Amino acid sequence: MEYRELGKTGLKLSALAFGASSLGGVFHSLKEEDGIKAVHTAVDNGINFIDVSPYYGHLKAEMVLGKALREIPRDKYILSTKVGRYGKDGVNTWDYSAARARASVFESMERLGVDYIDLINVHDIEFADLEQVAYETLPALVELREKGFVGHVGITDLQLPNLKWVIEHVPAGTVESVLNFCHYCLCDDALMDDIDFFLSRGIGVINASLLSMGLLSQRGAPDWHPAPAALHEACRKACEYCDSIGYPIEKLAIQYSVGEPRISANLFSSSSPANVLKNIEYASEPADPEVVAKVRSIIGDAFRLTWKNS
After folding, report:
1. DSSP assigned state of 309
2. 93 - beta bridge partners?
3. Digit-coded pLDDT (tens) for 92-148
4. CB 212, CB 180: distance < 8 Å
5. Phi, psi of 172 (to 5 degrees)
6. Residue 172 vs residues 148, 156, 168, 198, 303: alpha-carbon distances, Å
7. How many whole angstroms separate alpha carbon 259 and alpha carbon 86?
8. Which of 58, 120, 184, 290 is most buried, most CB within 10 Å of its CB?
């Protein structure tokens, strides 16, 4: 497994990393024992970065992950969770106030069974007033950083301009990492337009959803996936092509994303131990450039089609 530095944090993250959204049953139903074993399998095979949120499964992902982490030495993993986006009884909620952010960190630590968080993120800032994120949420997290409850502070969003706006409106060193999703994968590489902006400021870059939330998978995207119909159809055709040549699109997608050295970590999510092992194996080899080019040609005009978060 390759390890890469996250900006100026001093953290070295596995290039392939474990996203714990699946532990909340976000994409498909979950067998809790499988999810716990998936976490153990990831860590046992070199993955050291794990990302979660109280929003995933409306607390369920953090609770299941906490059960898994109780059996793993604390120095074996780097843990990231988030504040700002929540949910209860199937209803999504948002609260980016300083008071809620502070309380959320300690609630997450309790669910996860840890006494500090390596990286705390403001989650999906497109749902927030960006001025509140810059002038209220982030200062509250920086205060927790100064007190040693969290190691580092970051922000996450689908929309790249929001990440840049916040960084430009806070003191240098406030934001230490960004997490962006679905913008460095086989059907969208928009992250590359802005990566130098982040890196020139010493901000580490984390890439999530290498399979574009299921679009780039043989199983297919969930019914709720918000991508435009043209992108759904283009990715379906790309999946069929990869299947026809015996090169699973999941393999190509993981290899493609992990192959960008300027990205510190690439998050995938699975509650299947077998899939975890398979993805680690995929990441150990480079992508076939001819297959990447063919998939790009199939996606065609749908390349970089995106959507609003929901």
Report:
1. -
2. 86
3. 999 999 999 999 999 999 999 999 999 999 999 999 999 999 999 999 999 999 999
4. no
5. -55, 140
6. 19, 17, 8, 12, 34
7. 33
8. 120
Q: How far apart are CA 80 and CA 83, in angstroms?
A: 11
Q: Could you give the CA distance from residue 208 to residue 164 in angstroms, rounded to a whole number?
A: 17
Active site residue 241: no
Tokens of 19: 């996203």
Half-sphere exposure in the Cβ direction for 167 (13 Å, CA): 25
52, 62 contact by CB (below 8 A): yes
Side-chain-side CA neighbours of 201 within 13 Å: the count stands at 21
Give CA–CA dist 250/263, Å, rounded. 19
Q: How far is CA 128 from CA 18, 131, 162, in A?
A: 26, 8, 10
pTM over 0.85: yes
Residues 214-269 pLDDT 10s: 999 998 888 889 999 999 999 999 999 999 999 999 999 999 999 999 999 999 99
